[in-house]
Amino acid sequence: MHLDLIAADLGVGIREGILPGGWWGAYSHQHHSITLLPGLPPIQYRSTLAHELGHAHYRHRGSIPKYEWQASVWAARQLIDHDRFMAAVLEADRVAGVASILEVMPTDVDTYVRALSGKDRRHLQKQLSMAKAI
Questions:
Q1: Domain holding 94: CATH number?
Q2: pLDDT at 117
Q3: 18 Cβ contact partners less than 8 Å away, ≥ 6 residues apart
Q4: Which of 10, 79, 94, 125 has its CA 20 to 30 A from that of 85?
């Protein structure tokens, strides 16, 4: 689903604005809105928007490690299609290459992999070892 449609479904507002140093985006539970840093490159914009939509999805109040992880996993699952991910993994030999193919940030790929279930992780390892054997 397109991120703008998800935002509309969640009823969350999106705007650009000034943020604390180093922040690319922020979700305000109080206003149920997302602020994004102006001028983000497209991939960074999508990744940040998806992450902040994760906070909106869960209606997080504040920022603690558990909430950041939940928002990151939610975002990675919105941005990465599993079949495309598997094809990209077989094509690229590094996280940055997979991210480039999928047009996401490398951190999205890392999060996606870390959040895989044990069964999916074993399947991924099996696919990779079969591909290397060819």
A1: 3.30.2010
A2: 87
A3: none
A4: 10
Buried-exposed string 114-125: b where 16+ CB fall within 10 A, e elsewhere: ebeeeeeeeebe
Tens of pLDDT, residues 8-52: 999 999 999 999 989 999 999 999 999 999 999 999 999 999 999
Place of tokens 């140093």: 21
pLDDT (tens digit per residue) in 80-116: 999 999 999 989 989 999 999 999 999 999 999 999 9
- Structural domain including 114 reads 3-133
Q: How many CB atoms lie within 10 A of CB 66?
A: 9
Q: 16, 8, 17, 88: which is closest to 53 by C-alpha?
A: 8
Residues with Cβ within 8 Å of 42's Cβ and at least 6 positions away in sequence, in order, are none
Q: 19 phi and psi, to 5 degrees?
A: -130, 160
Q: How far apart are CA 9 and CA 59, in angstroms?
A: 14
Report how many domains make up the chain.
1
